[in-house]
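Lab meeting, action items carried over

1. Structure of the two-component assembly. Owner: GW. Status: complete.
Input record:
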Amino acid sequence: MAGPCYLGIDIGSLTVKAVLLDVDRRVLARSVLPAGYGGQEAAASVVAQTLAQARLSMADVAYSVVTGYGRVRFNAADEEVSEISCDARAVSHLYPSARTVIDIGGQDSKVIRVDASGRVVDFAMNDKCAAGTGRFLEVMAAALGVPVATLGDLALMSEHPVEISSTCTVFAESEVISHIARGAAREDVAAGVHRAIAARVLGLTARVGLEPQVVLVGGVALNKGVATALQQCGQAITVPEDPQVMGALGAALFAVHNGGR
Amino acid sequence: MGIRYRKLRTAGELQRLMRAHYLEGQYLRFGRPVAWVTSGAPVEILRAMGILAVYPENYGALCGARRCAVPLCRQSEAAGYSPDLCSYARTSLGAVFDPRQAPMGGLPRPNLLLACNNICGTVIKWYEAIGEHYGVPLFVFDAPFIHDEVQPHALDYVEQQLRELVHFVETATHRRLRWQRLEEVVRLSNDTVSLWGEIRTLCQARPPPLNVPDLFVNMAPIVVLRGTRSAVHFYKHLRDEVAQRVREGVGAVPEERHRLLWDNIPLWHRLYRFYNDFAQHGACFVVDTYTGAWSQAVPAGDVLGGLAFAYATVMLNRSLQYRVEEMVKLVLEYNVDGFVMHNNRSCKPYSLGQYAIKRQVAARTGVPGLVIEADMCDTRSFALEAVNTRVEAFVEMLAAR
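Predicted assembly:
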């Protein structure tokens, strides 16, 4: 293996992600693991796993950048950068014409406006509340008795989505349970849940403005139901091939840039 | 983390001044009546009549800074007051209901109350509750909202209430207003206010001599001791010290990379820690919208007409457009690179409309803004991690410009 490599790590609330790049910013390896308690041990494992995939060791890493909620306590990286800058960097790298990034993660959702040179111009994040996040979907999937991975496909089968009006996750769960008790079809409740998330995220989007191209990233982007529900804003929504690791990719891109200085 | 705060020489004087203010109300009344007053009320009239004025809002800020507001808020909530109510109101009512839990045993028992709604509508019900609890009279001073320009009939209406206020206080306390004394108090008020304005203007310098927590800590006398000689003395000393910093090129933070503007009441419960997180990144708040609310003088001429104008036209009583213009002016005058708005769960009139203001100010000045969600006193409405992420991303965004 010739040349140094660059590592980006994203320690989120539900999962940890790592991306390894070469100096030409080609992806050498990527991995995702559940965060577990605090994410620190999982972060060490995800780094080891990613390096092993590329048959490299820590000694080959020229520079590393960590992002995500666990970044402050993770000391093994050379630098910390916020998720917002990382998302913007990764999305502008893959989609130079992107102007709006929507990131729906485990415990927060963010909308980021970027300019033509990929710089963050403005951003908004969800208030102190988990509605409109991955955690919301997990709670609702549990209430519906389906795995969270299938919730999106279930929602796409709905013909008569129910209305979930509460923005509070706990109250929305009670609403879901009472819909189920009244005999609503599972797919209709699932669709209602996705609509509720989309409404919440689009409200956030309105704060910074929605300019095309719109790119949806974060673990929740894996769920087709959310992207579909978001299209109700009238904009096409682009979902990258590997949306969950965008933060880690952005961190790795910062590592190439800042480590090469 | 290194020490990010350069202490002012006048800090000891400020502490003595404020301690004396609270002791005076508790122990040194000498038969003088005590009035509980809102921050935007025409206190000069009370002062001229020898009435001791104390400020539940200042007391709330003090409890917030000492991080003992939450148990007092819980007292109010247990009594049935909504957690959505202003945390100053909940803190103050909690201290009234259970003084044993309150710093200094709460404020001294009032003889009368004066609430002016130029800052919010909450004060009316809040003061009614206090009045009911103590069985003391309340004067509600009504300042009509100003949609664009202040109207002559509104000023007449406010001036008429000043006359009624004089009558109300005379009836309640059997003291008479000496008009000459009122003019003297207004002069002292204006001296205080103009010194405060000077101090704020000195912060246009590079490096900035003060960071906004300095303004927040040092604003206490302009609120609670406006119109007194001791306040004028204190602000002369502070002005001299700040002017000296400017002359000698001494900055409030070690390294000034980003000059920022602050909007709304601070997070009293983590005042220095919060702004230190910015100072770590070389960001200094050189100006704010809040402490500027006390830099407006009473116009010369007829004293009641002047007071009517001053108290009818405070910032929170005016349109969003006015607030946009004021912020644009501050961005340009203080040459700031960004602004941070505290969406303060407690203060609805200040916080509603911030997103609209942010959009307009950013569009007109090309300077980015950040909104953070928190509360001035109630730590239960504050999520540290969520705020840190926003702050860090905002500073990265400024650095990349």
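2. GW to write a short summary for the group page. Key points so far: The two ends of chain A are 22 Å apart (CA to CA). Chain A has a mean pLDDT of 91.
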